[in-house]
Write a structure and sequence with these properties.
By secondary structure, the chain is an alpha/beta fold. The chain has two domains: about 150 residues, Medium-chain alcohol dehydrogenases, catalytic domain (Quinone Oxidoreductase, Chain A, domain 1), CATH 3.90.180.10; about 140 residues, Rossmann fold (3-Layer(aba) Sandwich). It contains eleven helices and 15 strands. The strands form three sheets. Strands 3, 4, 5, 6, 7, 14 and 15 form a seven-stranded mixed sheet that branches. β12, α8 and β13 form a beta-alpha-beta unit. α3 crosses α10. The longest helix is centred in the C-terminal third of the chain and has 16 residues.
Length: about 325
C-alpha cells in the first residue's frame, strides 16, 4: 500500500510517500480501507518533534480517518466487512490502517468520508471541554480563542448548540466569518489592538463564564482577566507555539478554575464522562446538527502540502487528505 511516512523530525518536507506492507488486524482490531483522513495541528507538532510524546521513526502520521472495514480480527463483535466507519487511530495517512474496534463509529447515511474523517478529533475535544470540563449551561457566555481553527470552530459550533452566547476571537475576517456561520454572536479580531479592551467593549467587564483556549500565547492572560468570579478557563493546546505564563494571583482574585484537557488520555482518567460525552455527541452528529467545515482537500501524494497548510495556520476548519479521491 501507499503511505505517507516521516523518516526524520522537522518540517512537512520530511514526509515521503512509501510503499509498505498492508497491516494485519490482531484480536479486537479491524483493518480499515482508508478513503479520507484529516490533518490536525498536533500532527505538525509531532513531525517537528515538539509534541509531548515522540513516536519512533519512521512512522505514518495522522490519527483521524474514515473508510470501509476490510478485515476483522478475532473477538470483534458488532462490525462486518463493508461497514463505513470513522476511526481515531495512529497511521491514518495511508491506504489502510489497523484500529481497535472500540474506536470505530458507524458513519451516518448521507455523510461522505471527508466529513466523517473531519469530525471526531476536534469536535469530540470541544465537546469534552464544554460539557465535562467547563460544564457549560444554556445562557452562559463563552469565549473561544482561535475560533477559526479546527478545535476552535468546533467549540463555537457546539457551544452554540448548547445554547451558550459565543464570543469568537480569531486573527482574520475570514476566520471570524466562519465562526459567525457556526453560531458566534460576537466576533473579535485579535490581530490588532488589545483583546481585553475589545472584550470589555463588546460583552462588558468580567462577563465571561468560560474561556476555551486551544491557542495559548499572548491572548490567554487578557482572556482570563475578563472571566467572571468563579469562571472556568480550559487550556487545550498551544497552536501559537507559546505556552502562556499565567500570574497565579489572577486565579486567587477571580476565584477562577483553570483546567486542562488532553484528548488522548481523557477517557482513561474519566471513563464515565468520556462515554457519556461520546454518546451525546454521536447523537448530534447522526442527526445532522453538527457538521465540520472542510477547508481544503489534498491527494495522498500531496500530504506535505496538507500538513503545511495546517502548520502555517491557514486552515479554516479542517484540511482533508483524499486517500481515494472520487469515493464519497
Amino acid at each position: 500500500m501507499s503511505a505517507a511516512r516521516i523518516h526524520r523530525l522537522g518540517t512537512p518536507d520530511a514526509i515521503e510517500i512509501d510503499t509498505v506492507d498492508v497491516p494485519t488486524p490482531g484480536p479486537g482490531e479491524i483493518l480499515v480501507e482508508v478513503h479520507a483522513a484529516a490533518v490536525n495541528f498536533p500532527d505538525t507538532l509531532m513531525i517537528a518533534g515538539n509534541y509531548q510524546t515522540r513516536t519512533p521513526l519512521p512512522y505514518i502520521p495522522g490519527h483521524e480517518a474514515a473508510g470501509i472495514v476490510s478485515g476483522i480480527g478475532d473477538g470483534v463483535d458488532g462490525l462486518v466487512m463493508g461497514d463505513r466507519v470513522a476511526v481515531l487511530a495512529p497511521g491514518a495517512f495511508a491506504e489502510y490502517l489497523v484500529a481497535p474496534a472500540e474506536v470505530a463509529t458507524a458513519i451516518p447515511d448521507g455523510l461522505d468520508f471527508a466529513a466523517a474523517a473531519a469530525t471526531w478529533v476536534c469536535h469530540l475535544t470541544a465537546y469534552h471541554a464544554l460539557r465535562s470540563v467547563a460544564r457549560i449551561s444554556s445562557g452562559n457566555t463563552v469565549l473561544v480563542l482561535g475560533a477559526g481553527g479546527g478545535v476552535g470552530l468546533a467549540a463555537v459550533e457546539i457551544a452554540a448548540a448548547m445554547g451558550a452566547k459565543v464570543v469568537a476571537a480569531a486573527s482574520s475576517p475570514a476566520k471570524l466569518e466562519a465562526a459567525r456561520s457556526k453560531g458566534a454572536r460576537v466576533t473579535i479580531d485579535y490581530s490588532s489592538g488589545d483583546l481585553r479592551d475589545k472584550l470589555r467593549g463588546t460583552v462588558g467587564p468580567g462577563a465571561l463564564d468560560a474561556v476555551i483556549d486551544p491557542v495559548g500565547g499572548r491572548h490567554s492572560e487578557p482572556a482570563l482577566r475578563e472571566i467572571r468570579w468563579g469562571g472556568t478557563f480550559v487550556t487545550l493546546g498551544y497552536a501559537s507555539g507559546e505556552i502562556p505564563r499565567i500570574p497565579v494571583n489572577l486565579i486567587l482574585l477571580k476565584g477562577a478554575v483553570i483546567k486542562g484537557l488532553e484528548i488522548r488520555t481523557f477517557a482513561q482518567h474519566d471513563p464515565d464522562s468520556a462515554s457519556r460525552d461520546r454518546a451525546e455527541f454521536a447523537d448530534l452528529w447522526r442527526t445532522g446538527r453538527i457538521r465540520p467545515t472542510i477547508h481544503a482537500r489534498y491527494p495522498l501524494r500531496d500530504t506535505r502540502e496538507a500538513l503545511e497548510e495546517v502548520a502555517q495556520r491557514r486552515s479554516i476548519g479542517k484540511t482533508i487528505i483524499d486517500v481515494r479521491p472520487g469515493h464519497r
